[in-house]
Design a protein that fits this description.
- The chain is of the alpha+beta class.
- Helix 1 packs across helix 2.
- The longest helix has 16 residues, at 534-549.
């Protein structure tokens, strides 16, 4: 891997994050611990270690980067620079018994010129060290492989699902997949050791700096993970049954404000793809910021009232009906027991938010009911017959969203404009790459989702990356809106369910003020990525915040009860 940020240098990663270069993963652990002590107050800041960098991400959208950057500089000075690569004392020693019978073991052995028994011997002969956590919850990148195994590449074609407990090799590291997930590493074995559980801190068995010994499992060692037990959820005593799902449509999930404070163990934030429509839906029905809503993708959802309630439907200009009668979107609607709310075809964009006074409540992981498409946290897509509960509510309610409010996605044939600030990796791109990015029109591909939007240049390929001969980027913390450019040259914009670490260089980052528009980019949407400066990005966020705060008009005439 090639280091992207020189040791001791600080580089902006969008308008709410920055990267600090360090001399290695151990030095990153030292810096991250110091930064958390200095900065992490109230869970408003995430600190994520990469292989040769530390990412500091502001989760409070109203916070300013400058004071946090200044504080990080003071921490660096106190450490006398980017720190040496000796790091803190070694962590715990964790033994992981394995059955070495993976489907790729023979291929790995042939590639490195060994027998399968010799590969097993190489894997078990020395201690490995947890360099960083990322990619998925509890996924530990293990350093210290013997030289013979350092050249094992990723699979030519990633598997759609890698079983939990799989022991794997790729790109100079070993790892164990904590949960079932897509993956492209070479599978050489399996273990029954539980590496991740959302039930109690510290959630991940392994932590950066821990030493790991892989062993050949004995007769009494489990080598198959225990079945995942989904704890039964009962609504709290204060909750009210409010809705029954008749049909969920293309995809409908519960989203609240997302997860905070767990990126360091590989857990994505999740939360709404369009935070603006989400916020307006909650404001309309008087909910607290971040309350649970239904995120409906593409329309087609039908919900039956299970008790008198007040709902609102915001975003993507959908056709809305109650018992077949057309009603306005963006307005508080009374819903009686047995009445059916239909969120029909969307007029523009792709995502609509259905809020209920009191906010939807449900099973939580890490303090959030958000459903995460990358690693499966949360209740997942709604199904027919599912019952939904809301918390207690009280007036006042809003009445409607003003015309021209920031939830509106422009209609017509013109490309959607997403403003971007420069990314942290200019040396990985052609000198005029950012200008070329801004001058082109891209189309959102059909395989895009809440993890990332895949873009294709509309008319002709746009050359962005420089040809490099010395490897790939060191994996490092990434953020929603990061415009990554893989070797093929087609950009990918990260969405809320993205992995906490990324290994592709970032040319630009969509500004926070435009994340609502980003969340409305359906497949086929034509977009332009227009570069602006950081001062303009900050001003744009303040303007967007003021617009949201002033968008809800009037009060719905109801009484509590």
């Amino acid at each position: 891997m090639t280091q992207s940020v020189p040791p001791g240098e600080l580089r902006r990663l969008g308008d709410r994050a920055f990267l600090i270069g360090v001399v290695g993963a151990a030095a990153g652990r030292v810096l991250a611990q110091a930064l958390r002590r200095e900065l992490d107050e109230g869970g408003d800041i995430e600190v994520v270690c990469g292989f040769a960098s530390v990412a500091v991400v502001l989760t409070d959208r109203d916070a300013d980067l400058e004071p946090v950057e200044a504080a990080a500089g003071r921490v660096m000075a106190a450490l006398d620079g980017p720190a040496a690569d000796d790091g803190p004392p070694p962590g715990r020693l964790v033994t992981v018994p394995c059955a070495f019978d993976g489907p790729d073991l023979a291929e790995v052995a042939a590639r490195v010129g060994c027998t399968t028994d010799q590969v097993v011997g190489l894997l078990t002969e020395r201690l490995l060290t947890v360099a960083v956590l990322g990619f998925s919850p509890g996924f530990a990148y293990l350093d210290g492989l013997p030289e013979e195994l350092l050249s094992v590449p990723r699979c030519a074609r990633p598997r759609p699902v890698v079983p939990a407990g799989s022991v794997a090799l790729a790109n100079g590291h070993a790892a164990v997949y904590p949960t079932a997930s897509p993956g492209g590493w070479q599978l050489v074995g399996r273990t029954g050791v539980t590496l991740f559980s959302p039930e109690a801190p510290p959630y991940a068995l392994l932590a950066p700096g821990d030493r790991v010994r892989l062993t050949v499992a004995g007769a009494g060692d489990p080598v198959d993970p225990a079945p995942v037990r989904v704890a039964a959820w009962s609504p709290p005593a204060t909750a009210r049954l409010v809705l029954e799902v008749v049909t969920p449509g293309l995809r409908a999930v519960v989203q609240d404000g997302g997860r905070r404070g767990v990126a360091a163990v590989g857990v994505p934030c999740a939360g709404p793809a369009d935070p603006v429509s989400f916020a307006l839906a909650n404001r309309l029905v008087g909910n607290a910021e971040g309350s649970g809503t239904i995120e409906v993708t593409g329309g087609g959802a039908r919900l039956r009232g299970a008790a008198p309630s007040h709902v609102a439907v915001v975003g993507a200009a959908p056709e809305v009906r109650v018992d077949g009668v057309a009603v306005p979107a963006g307005q508080v609607l009374p819903l009686s027991d047995g009445h059916v709310l239909e969120v029909g075809p969307v007029g523009r964009g792709c995502r609509t938010y259905v809020s209920v006074a009191g906010g939807l409540v449900g099973p939580a992981a890490f303090g959030s009911s958000a459903s995460d498409e990358l690693c499966g946290l949360g209740a997942g897509p709604l199904v027919a017959g599912q019952l939904l509960y809301a918390g207690p509510w009280s007036p006042p309610l809003g009445d409607h969203v003003a015309a021209g409010a920031p939830s509106d996605v422009a209609a017509g044939g013109a490309p959607l404009v997403l403003r971007v600030v420069p990314g942290p990796h200019p040396e990985w791109f052609e000198p005029a790459a950012l200008e070329r990015l801004g001058g082109g029109v891209f189309v959102v591909e059909g395989d895009s989702n809440r993890v990332g939007l895949r873009l294709r240049a509309e008319s002709h390929a746009i050359t962005l990356r420089r040809p490099l001969q010395d490897g790939e980027l060191d994996s490092q913390g990434v953020v929603t809106g990061a415009v990554q450019v893989p070797p093929g040259g087609e950009p990918v914009i990260l969405m809320p369910d993205h992995a906490t670490l990324g290994g592709y260089p970032v040319l630009a980052v969509v500004v926070s003020a435009d994340h609502g528009l980003l969340g409305q980019c359906a497949p086929g949407t034509r977009v332009r990525l227009v570069p602006i400066g950081h001062d303009e990005a900050r001003a744009a966020w303040r303007a967007r915040r003021r617009a949201v705060e002033g968008a809800v008009i009037g009060h719905y005439p109801v009484a509590a009860g």
